[in-house]
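Lab notes, practical 5.
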Amino acid sequence: MANINLQPGQAGPSTVTDAGHRRGLIVGLLLSASFVSLLNQTLLIVAIPRIMDEFGILPNQGQWVTTAFLLTNGIMIPVTAFLIEKFGNRSLFIFALGVFCGGTLLGAVAPNFPVLLLARVTQAMAAGILMPLMQTVTLTLFPPERRGAAMGMNGLVIGFAPAIGPTLGGWLLSQGSWRTLFYTVLPIALIVLVAAIVLMKNVTERKPRTVDPLGIVLSTFGWGGLLYGFSMAGSAGWGDTGVLCALAVGAVCLTVFIRRQLTQDTPMLNFRVFRYPAFTLSTVLSVFMFAVLIGTETLLPMYVQNVRGGTALLSGLMLLPGALSTGLLAPVSGRLYDRFGARGLSIAGFVFMVIGSLMLFNIGMETSYVVITLMYLIMMIGVALLMTPLMTAGINALPFSQIAHGTAMSNTIRMVGGSIGTATMVSVMSRATGLSQAADPAIAGLSGIKAGIGTAAVMVLAGLVLSFFLRERAKRELATE
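Output from the prediction step:
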């Protein structure tokens, strides 16, 4: 196999001089670390009811186990581009894995919910670095004519790891405490860390870069304020002073953050990519898709365990076929995109999601779990048709010089938008449960679940309408500006 090929302006071959097996080792380490971090993202979804019971918290608080992880991911992703250029991939990779191991250990021994949230945020900081680092190093190691196959390996990890998370989490919960989930991930992460210290090589070029601390603060308070306001509105009400203050602080900080980024020569997050309509629309559609995906994965375990009295393992098994379908169909949707473009796939994907959400909206106390599994599978087929084509169509709409910023922006907006959408669905669920006149708590809980799923149906219906406006060029020449 040929030596590792690097593009002009990147690190020279002196950094990695072995044959292709060295490249395979590096990519293998990156894929392993990313697999663990992505598995960890969905592993705790089915454990939220258990965590709520142990710490005596409400659903609005419990959903932060997922939301905080996604939000922190969204904050870290745009910073990673600066960190890679400043420190190089080897140091950054080892640092991120070390942080992830520390957060995992903290989660395993967390004595209360705030400490558990801190552990999840710590894990998410590392995961937010690992994912874009995997993509950047992969693109650095492989020549253009082989990057498609290389990124296909990334897609396999991205599709498979989150898919098995809920089921694996449910099985582990059937064997012991929710803390077992952290103790299961920790040794795997430690093995990858030790291997990285021994085997990882630096293949990226280090450049003098300065991280924008004020930009990070503004981004955190901007997105965090909006998310906190949406989350608390379910229990406190949309007119609550605290909710309104959080939303106002978030809106102001986010506005200042955007204005600051637009005035910088090297912004942390380049909002100028939104000048390209196809990128903007595909990003908005991705937000709708991702919000409904994560929100539904959060609501259905609550339905199984809190409303129907089922087990965590049962809720995980119910989600498994649909989740696996996204990984199995992702390569197919990618090939379909190459042949037909994004518009038709986007329309078809949202049609599946609308049908699935409307079917789930009609679930009751006696609905068969097999039927619910099929309903969720229909929704996830839609997700599989949307995920890769929307991402690719958005990036293809940008000139070559903006692709890196476009990737960071779309990932950030999707993560944070998904967090806000999930918080909105859970807020609606909590509010509807509280307003229910049913004497039976299970019936009241069912009303809340259906209200949350109804919110998801509205989101995907909006996505379906917007999909008809999606346009893209059949062929494009990469701009060199």
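Observations recorded by the TA: Residues 1-19, 473-481 have pLDDT under 50 and may be disordered. Residues 403-435 form the longest helix (33 residues).
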